[in-house]
């Protein structure tokens, strides 16, 4: 999703090693303390680290715009009011928490099937479980036929694939690949829409085609863009929520027994994973005017990066922010954003997370990081996660 948004933006120098990317939080703490608002000339953007400042930026969509202009497509993520509200109202009708809740039995059976396919006492949690689960869920939700699933996953992977290195060449290669996948996906969804027009189904695409406000329907382009956004915004993030959560369980194994004994703590566990190891660590905006944040003056037109990964551990908002606590209440992390763009898929991500951990903890004990092989961070300036996470477990 936001990868495309900052395709030309390098990671910041302070975090540009694999070790830092696997654990950026000490660096983010230092930056929050030393330079809470600062300009980075390498990346030509401002970085903001404090909770209060991040919240203010995300709240003020007038001064801090999501618009990206030409090439951004017509996705709500990159719209400002009033267009954003109209579009969000429309898609929210098809994407209600109730509609999501009804997916529970399907998500459960997909999770169980994936784990049934694991026949040994070891797996890569990322590729065996955390990656396919959200892809299959979203494919079903949209109404993509089963036989297209492989192809669907390929497209979905390309949309979120990150460059192997930070060279211009690597970025160009990945951008070309992504554009091609995008074109194919547009054709694919346009085709499904044609079929649904002739024969409506009980799926999200049909619902989006029928939704209207004051007699106005979504255009074909808007529907297709929204479907593509769901893939790009919903899959890798949810994958990382699950993998990051398993990473927590292996780093703090005492949590496994606790959650097994009290499964009703799983939602609190998910919220704390979102805060502690957030799948998204940074969110971008553009200043529409000259504006003061802290003791810095940000010029009109500047890129502003809000580090939710730093805000989530701000000691002015969270007690013992570097401790993982199941009893953290309230837990006002900003991993799903804040304000008008607050993640539309949050109920789905939370539900998938809950079901994933219920399934894992029901089935396995002693989840541990496998001793063989090193783990690789995802190379990205806004996503926090690992490419692979091999584990062992007792069945
Ligand atoms: C927006 C995070 C899962 C769909 C956002 C934003 C964040 C976010 C931070 C706001 C971006 C901004 O303000 O610029 C996450 C995380 C997820 C997750 C951490 C998983 C743990 C999902 C899922 C879906 C989804 C599963 C749907 C299938 C969307 C959409 C928006 C959005 C449509 C745009 C909302 C708007 O602009 O009004 N997400 N997301 N997300 N997310 Fe998610």
**CATH third-level topology:** Cytochrome p450
Low-confidence spans: pLDDT under 50, at least 5 residues?
1-9
| Integer tally of domains | 1
Q: Between the first and last Cα atoms, what is the distance in angstroms?
A: 36 Å
Mean of pLDDT = 90
Q: What is the N-to-C order of secondary-structure elements (H for helix, E for strand)?
A: HHHEEHEHHHEHHHHHEEHHHEEEEHHEE
Radius of gyration, CA atoms, in whole angstroms? 21 Å
- The total of helices stands at 17
Give the % helix: 40-55%
What is the CATH first-level class name?
Mainly Alpha
Shape: globular
The proportion of residues in beta strands is 5-15%
Number of strands: 12
Major sheet strand order? 1-2-10-7-3
> Cofactors and ligands present?
protoporphyrin IX containing FE
The named CATH superfamily = Cytochrome P450
InterPro entries: Cyt_P450, Cyt_P450_B, Cyt_P450_CS, Cyt_P450_sf
Family: Belongs to the cytochrome P450 family.
GO molecular function: heme binding; iron ion binding; monooxygenase activity; oxidoreductase activity, acting on paired donors, with incorporation or reduction of molecular oxygen
Protein name: Cytochrome P450 YjiB
Structure description:
The structure is a single chain. This protein has 395 residues and is of the alpha+beta class. The chain has a single domain, classed as Cytochrome p450, CATH 1.10.630. The chain is built from 17 helices and twelve strands. The protein has a five-stranded mixed β-sheet with strand order 1-2-10-7-3, with helices on one face. The N terminus is likely disordered. One of its GO terms (molecular function) is monooxygenase activity. Belongs to the cytochrome P450 family. Keywords: Heme, Iron, Metal-binding, Monooxygenase, Oxidoreductase. InterPro entries: Cyt_P450, Cyt_P450_B, Cyt_P450_CS, Cyt_P450_sf.
């Amino acid at each position: 999703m936001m990868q495309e948004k900052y395709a030309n933006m390098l990671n910041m120098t302070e975090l540009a090693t694999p070790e830092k990317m696997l654990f950026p939080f000490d660096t983010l703490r230092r930056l929050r303390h030393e330079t809470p608002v600062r300009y980075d000339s390498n990346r030509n953007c401002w970085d903001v680290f404090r909770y209060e400042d991040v919240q203010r930026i995300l709240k003020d969509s007038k001064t801090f715009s999501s618009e990206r202009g030409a090439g951004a497509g017509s996705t709500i993520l990159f719209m400002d009011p009033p267009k954003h509200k109209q579009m969000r109202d429309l898609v929210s009708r098809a994407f209600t928490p109730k509609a999501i809740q009804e997916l529970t039995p399907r998500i459960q059976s997909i999770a169980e099937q994936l784990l049934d396919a694991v026949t040994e006492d070891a797996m890569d949690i990322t590729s065996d479980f955390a990656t396919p689960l959200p892809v299959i869920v979203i494919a079903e939700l949209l109404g993509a036929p089963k036989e297209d699933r492989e192809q669907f996953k390929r497209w979905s992977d390309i949309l979120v694939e990150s460059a192997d290195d930070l060279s211009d060449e690597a970025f160009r290669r990945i951008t070309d690949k992504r554009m091609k996948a995008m074109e194919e996906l547009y054709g694919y969804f346009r085709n499904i829409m044609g079929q649904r027009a002739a024969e409506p189904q009980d799926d999200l695409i049909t619902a989006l085609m029928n939704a209207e406000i004051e007699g106005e329907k979504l255009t074909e382009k808007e529907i297709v863009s929204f479907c593509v956004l769901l893939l790009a915004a919903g899959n890798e993030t949810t994958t990382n929520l699950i993998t990051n959560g398993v990473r927590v369980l292996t780093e703090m194994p005492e949590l496994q027994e606790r959650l097994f004994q009290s499964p009703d703590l799983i939602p609190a566990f998910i919220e704390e994973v979102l805060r502690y190891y957030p799948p998204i660590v940074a969110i971008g905006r553009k200043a529409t005017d000259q504006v003061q944040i802290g003791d810095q003056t940000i010029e009109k037109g500047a890129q502003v990066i809000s580090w939710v990964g730093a805000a989530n551990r701000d000691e002015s908002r969270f007690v013992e922010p570097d401790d993982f606590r199941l009893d953290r209440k309230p837990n006002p992390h900003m991993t799903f954003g804040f304000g008008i763009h607050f993640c539309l898929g949050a109920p789905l991500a939370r539900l998938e997370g809950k079901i994933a951990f219920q399934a894992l903890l029901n089935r396995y004990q002693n989840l541990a990081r496998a001793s063989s092989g090193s783990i690789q961070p995802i190379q990205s300036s806004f996503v926090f996660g690992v490419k692979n996470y091999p584990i062992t477990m007792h069945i």
